[in-house]
Amino acid sequence: MLTASHQPCYAPFAQSNAGTSSAVASELDGRWGQMGTSVVAMRRTLPLVMTATLIFAACSDSDDSSSNDTTAGTEPTSSEAVTTDGTETDGTAPATTFEDVGPPPTNPDKPAVDIPTDISDELIVTELSPGSGPTAQQGDTVIVDYIGVRSSDGVEFDNSYDRFEPFPVVLGTGGVIQGWDEGLVEAQAGARLQLDIPSDLAYGETARGDIIGENEALTFVIDVRAVVPPADPADEPTEAGVPASEGATEVTTVDLIEGDGAELEEGQTAVLRMVMFRGDSLVALESTWAGDAIQIPMVEGAFPGLVAGMPGMQVGGRRAIIVPPDQGFGPDGQPSVGLPADTDVIMVVDLLGVY
Fold first, then answer.
1. Which helix (H) or strand (E) holds 179?
2. Is the pTM of this model over 0.90?
3. Measured in whole angstroms, how far is the alpha carbon of residue 95 from the centre of its chain?
4. Who has greater pLDDT, 157 or 27?
């Protein structure tokens, strides 16, 4: 996606995963996509090295079949081709048919939009339901779901709900239309807002395709999933905070800082930063502090050690999670990041938001 002033599509913001190579993006789409649409949100903000590390671990239980997986955009072989008649392609297994696929899932959170009776020449922010978390300021990352319609007649031009992809927006950087940059300041995590945006705070005299015309006022309903302040390097953990661990047989946790915000539950998505340490030497291996916050759903198929160790944390808390190899990177470890075979890891996690 391009910047709001140049972007040819309807969404009101710039692409956030700049720097992600197409090969890495394809790998994420191919592997995480197999785990279900609830996992898609993780792709948006996960730094690249940690992405590859966690994906490898999550997929390592798929035996040797993973070596035959194709990534997104790879042409299937003749034995993998999708047919419409249900015939077998390799003499042993029936091919997937288009009828088997079914319609795309519908997100139950997608709201209806009540368009304004009169088109205002000023930005109008309406709180449809209150939040209970932190409020957004310039420089914060606001993770949102949204639906956008023309204010004049309610015709929808875009939404994130059907993609099951909440999107992170950094306020005050010019990556969104002005109506968003102004309207999301003071937005509270957990709130649902309606932004009625006059054309001069949207796309002005520039038409956007067939739906958004010149001087078009726009209306958005936005669910604020999380508000994440910029990372402070001084807050990055430099020590694991727990004794060294060798030969762990189960995931254990130690709360280093007690949070006071919303509690993370199974099935929700965690917004976090973390540093990963070797369990035996307590040497730091990887950190997400310099990049965007991670979004990881607490569902089967995501990194097992985090799914087991994070629920029960409260926003604002820091937890050390001791992860044995069978709940982490498997018996082979992860040599690319300095983790030997059969070695525990300790993940020090700061929970920034939940939804």
1. helix 178-183
2. no
3. 32
4. 157
